[in-house]
Specification:
Elements: E1 3-7, H1 13-26, E2 44-50, E3 53-62, E4 69-77, H2 86-100, E5 105-111, H3 115-119, E6 124-132, E7 135-143
Parallel strand pairs: 4-5
Antiparallel strand pairs: 1-2, 2-3, 3-4, 5-7, 6-7
């Protein structure tokens, strides 16, 4: 069973997280490696580890100065581990952490093809569909 831990950018696992995000999220849509790291310094980073290998990651980025609202972003699971529950573990750990920090709402720019995944956690679609990085997305939010 994978273990989900929170890391910072000084952790050696951060470089592995970056590589996973490049491989799973950026390269398939033509974004240059390391091209979506603008929020990394202020984000909380969660990674899934199994047998010493980093197999998944997700970030939680504060959206206000009081840390009452945050955005789930950069969710990536290694291709060989998708549909095995790794993503579910990452999101649940992120939600539990957000609650413990007093965050009251989490938003997502969810790819339209995966909104059902987030709906299982109580996220709700709001607003119109929109395009981001050339892909159809939906705004989603969850009150904690």
């Amino acid at each position: 069973m994978p273990e989900v831990i929170r890391i910072n950018m000084k952790d050696p696992l951060y470089q592995k997280e970056r590589l996973l995000r490049n491989r799973v999220l950026l390269r398939p849509i033509g974004i240059p490696d390391f091209g979506w790291e603008m929020n990394d310094p202020r984000a909380w980073h969660f990674v899934a580890i199994e047998s010493g290998h980093l197999i998944g990651c997700v970030l939680l980025v504060p959206m206000d100065d009081m840390n009452t609202k945050a955005q789930l972003t950069q969710m990536a699971v290694d291709d060989s581990c998708q549909k095995t529950g790794v993503g579910r573990l990452l999101v649940q750990e992120l939600i539990d952490f957000a609650k413990s920090e007093g965050i009251r709402e989490i938003e997502i720019h969810s790819r339209s093809t995966v909104t059902q995944f987030y709906e299982r956690f109580g996220f709700e679609v709001f607003g119109p569909e929109f395009e981001e990085v050339g892909i159809s997305h939906r705004y989603m939010s969850k009150r904690l």
